[in-house]
Amino acid sequence: MVRTVVERVRSNPTQFGEVEIHPRTLLSLAVDGWSAWLEEHLVPVGELMGRYGTGFPLATAELRFLRPFTFLSANSFTRETSVVFRRPRDLSVTCDTVFRHHGEDGEDGEDGEDGEDFAEVRLTATVSRFTPGTLCAAALGAPPAELLARLGPDERGADRRHSVLADHVARLEATAERLTPDHHRTVTAHRHLCEPGDQWTFVPVPDLLAEAREALLLAEEATAPHLLGSLALGHHRLTFDLHRPLGLLDSARLTTTAYQDGAGLAFVHRVTSARGEPHALALETLRPSPAGEPPRGAGNPAESATMTPGGPP
Question: How many domains, in total, are found in the chain?
């Protein structure tokens, strides 16, 4: 049995936008839950890195928005986190987090067992080893045997599944209607976007994608004014792969393009270096309009397997 950590989270306005809980909130809370799981079942994350020289660079983040959830939906909600290292060599790890609210009118449960799931986050990372205390010059490597011995048998699961995001993006670009030209902007890894080791952290990535998407909507307002209606739509899914890091004050190009198919609106984002090297790939898919009409007036969208970038967690 995979052990879990369930904690209550109190709602506050900074966690939400007008139409949904912020994706960055979900990511931040998922990382917080991961840290809580490590502290309770393995070793605190500071000790993991500082004493054991072990870290988890993110490879893929998958956010699924199961149903609308806004600031007024509940006074609090729960976060349930589980972690599994992946055989055969324990070189990757997944952290799954389920967000759930309980009861009506703020009557929230405490145990995490009952209630309604409103979002799920899966983080897939590689396992890296480095000289303890340096937080740099990392190389792929399994956790120390001393730590692996503390895991339950079900916490060393099947081999990691590779991300299929690139395949979904390629299918979308080949079959969906392209709504806009590419829109480019520059992103720079300023200090507030970095973690220890002076490399960009993934938690703010959804904010960078949202800025790029909204800049695209404004740039194309004259030719595609209907797209502005997507500002009223929440996410269905958000998935991104990180291919290589950005260091402190490094800059890269963020390219965004809008598409539409039978599932609704989708936005593809690519972060590349000046030499064209890929840093990240992302796909945002939005929920259909509550009125049943997409912002561009192209019919009644329906759920589609072609728009499920990560598959079920």
Answer: 2
